[in-house]
Amino acid sequence: MINCVSLFLGNNYESVKYLLTIILSVCLYSVFGQDEISVDFEPLGGKFEEGISVTLSSAEGATIYYTTDGSRPGSGATRYKNAINVQSIAVIRAVAYKNGKRSRVSTQSYFCDRPYTLPIVSITTNPENLWDYTTGIYVKGCCADTIEPYVGANFWRDWEKYANIEMYEVDGELCFNQEVGINLFGGFSRMLPQKSLAVFARSRYGEKRIKYPIFPERDIKKYKSFIIRNSGGDFRRTHFRDAFMTQLAAPTGVAIQAYRPAVVFLNGEYWGIQNLREKISEHYLKSNFDVDKENVDILRHNGVVRHGTSRNYKKLLAFLRTKDMSKDETVEELRTFMDVEDYIRYNIAETYSDNRDAGGNIRYWRERNDSAKWRWVLYDLDLGLGNNSPNGYKRNTVRKFTNANAEAWPDPSWSTFIIRSLLKNEHLKNQYINTFADHLNTVYKEETAIGLLDKIYGDLKDEMRFHVDRWKTSYENWEYHVDIVRTFVKERPTYIRK
Q1: Contact at 8 Å (CB) between 284 and 296?
Q2: CA distance 120 to 167
Q3: DSSP E strands: which ranges in 101-236?
Q4: What is the C-alpha to C-alpha distance for residues 228 and 266, in angstroms, rounded to an integer?
């Protein structure tokens, strides 16, 4: 084709490229017709006090097809003829055709069944993306081991699936409605019936950002990604331990993920309460700490790289191993590349909460320049606050976290290495004790903690009746676990002081 066009235009290669670009654009436009026709919904999706009729319309002469099972509609879907009656919950996806041209798929979700006291997040995707034996991210699939953690299961795959997401505020206001990518998120919580999802805005799906302040506590107007979390090891218990602890610790200055509970629907099916959380990534650091997102190191666990490199962190560990930490001049040198105060705040929060998975759930970062310091993010505290024992408030986590042991989990010696190294210095030991005492008298004070607990409890209590029904537990069980947390925060300061 290039040779033929060259004969017409001569040997002007730039003219050939330009003409081919025009031809390709025309061909693509004629196939997809994204901007020429569209499907209009009346009314648009949202919350309604009673049943409604939804009408679809498009350009004159266009034919509309729609689905209500989450699947992406095409010419093989139901042809639209009359208004669609919605009496409870419905997700409608529609597409229009005219003269061989095809509109974008439009998606709207309708909630007419009852009042909701939390925001609603509606995720719509081809059902096979979730449930197909071969390709579904929510199932074990063909290759899973027969025992936990079902190694080889589909839900352990790093598969990102195309989806549409909508979010509505409690008053029914639309927050956003756009196409995104979703994949499963988390560790062993992937085995739970309600799973966590990571949501990604990417240019290939349309918008490269979600342009809405999802978390009112943050002064952030747009997000590259966020998490829809199942509360991990706290599923079917309080469903908020991690969020409660990070919110409680926030006034100390330690970095946390913002939190907002929401009601989630998958393809129009009620999926219960899940916790919207910031996703720890280079975008999180840029938004919250104003750093160059392309120039950061983010690590987890025992130096596992999430972004950047681990070279500088290895230097930090080598410094702690080889230098005499009892000397104040050594500590002053350490302060040039590690935020010691930040680490102490972080460690105190882990210790206070008696996090039974502190060794596995560690996140830390630095900006990649000569003056940057390592800092930590308080992350994933589902197994704290009495989760494994109603008497967890009595546990001597100070001793546990400041002594080496041969455990593989939950507190291997590498996970307590930094705090043990710092406490070799008398001044840092006093700083640790005084800071802990200050926090026990302020942010972790009984009255402060109970006030926050009551607020979260109040936010969730109405919707929790539906959530526990969905996941085959009980409201009494939820309140039992809430009371465990209540007892923990009442009694914990006394036992920590001992």
Answers
A1: no
A2: 6
A3: 101-102, 106-111, 120-124, 161-168, 174-185, 196-200, 225-229
A4: 12
**Structure tokens belonging to residue 357:** 């998975």
Amino acid at position 353, single letter: S
The DSSP 8-state label assigned to residue 13 in this structure reads H
Distances (CA, A) of 192 to 135, 145, 195, 230, 485: 18, 16, 6, 9, 22
Query: Which segments of 282-357 does DSSP mark as H helices, in order?
Result: 282-289, 311-322, 328-334, 340-353
* Cis status of the peptide bond prior to 149, with omega within 30 of 0: yes
Amino acid at 1: M
Q: Is the peptide bond prior to 410 cis by the omega test (within 30 degrees of 0)?
A: yes
Which of 220, 208, 157 minimizes the C-alpha distance to 180? 208
Instruction: Using a cut of 0.85, tell me whether the model's pTM lies above it.
Output: yes
Q: Which pLDDT score, from 0 to 100, does residue 410 have?
A: 85
Angle between helices 340-353 and 426-441 (to 10 degrees): 50
Mean pLDDT by 10 residues, the chain (498 residues): 40 40 42 68 98 98 98 98 98 97 98 98 98 97 95 96 98 98 95 98 97 97 98 97 98 98 98 98 98 97 96 97 98 98 98 90 94 96 96 96 87 94 98 98 98 98 98 98 98 97
Query: How distant, in Å, are the alpha carbons of 26, 88, 105 from that of 32?
Result: 10, 33, 11
Q: How do the residues of the chain divide into helix, strand and coil, expressed in percent and rounded to 5?
A: 35, 25, 40
Instruction: Read off φ and ψ for residue 200, nearest 5 degrees.
Output: -125, 130
Burial of 410 (0-12, 13-18, 19+ CB in 10 A): middle
